[in-house]
Amino acid sequence: MKIIFKFLPSLFTFVILTFAVVLPILTFAQSPRDTCLPGTICSPYPQGFTIVSFLNFILEKIVLPIGGVIAVLFLVYAGFLFVTARGSEEQLEHAKETLKWTIIGIAILFGSLAISNGIKNTICQIAPNIPSFCTTR
């Protein structure tokens, strides 16, 4: 267990640096030059790109799959702690705490998608005149 915690800061640093390098490249990728008239300033974003669609993409395609895998691994780890406790009260308490926080994390992870969709639907009901925000694809 201590080995896992030893490498977590390095893993998080790697993930953050990867996002800091890769996401700007993907975000600021240039559109084809034939759509831009000479003498005008063109948007580097593709048609229909909004920050909301970008955040939704990150949540659905990156955060939820990675978080789901991590949640399953922690559920397996909590089960492993229960099996190896062998009746020790201290180890059983540690296993119960691990299971409790894993379930809370799973609820937050999967609740985030429901909350973000709820906020988006509420905004679209209040102000349906935002076509780039309220369109469904």
The amount of beta strand, in percent, is under 5%
Q: Specify the oligomeric state.
A: single chain
The low-confidence runs, each spanning 5 or more residues with pLDDT under 50, are: none
- What percentage of residues falls in helices of 4 or more residues? over 70%
Q: Write down the Rg.
A: 22 Å
Task: Give the beta-strand count.
Answer: 0
The tally of helices reads 4
Structural class estimated from helices and strands: mainly alpha
Largest sheet geometry: none
Mean pLDDT across all residues, rounded? 78
Structural domain tally: 2
Question: CA-to-CA gap between the ends?
Answer: 44 Å
Task: Assign an overall shape.
Answer: elongated
From N to C, what is the helix and strand string?
Answer: HHHH
Describe the protein's architecture and organization:
With 137 residues, the protein is mainly alpha-helical. It contains 4 helices and no strands. The longest helix is centred in the C-terminal third of the chain and has 38 residues, at 89-126.
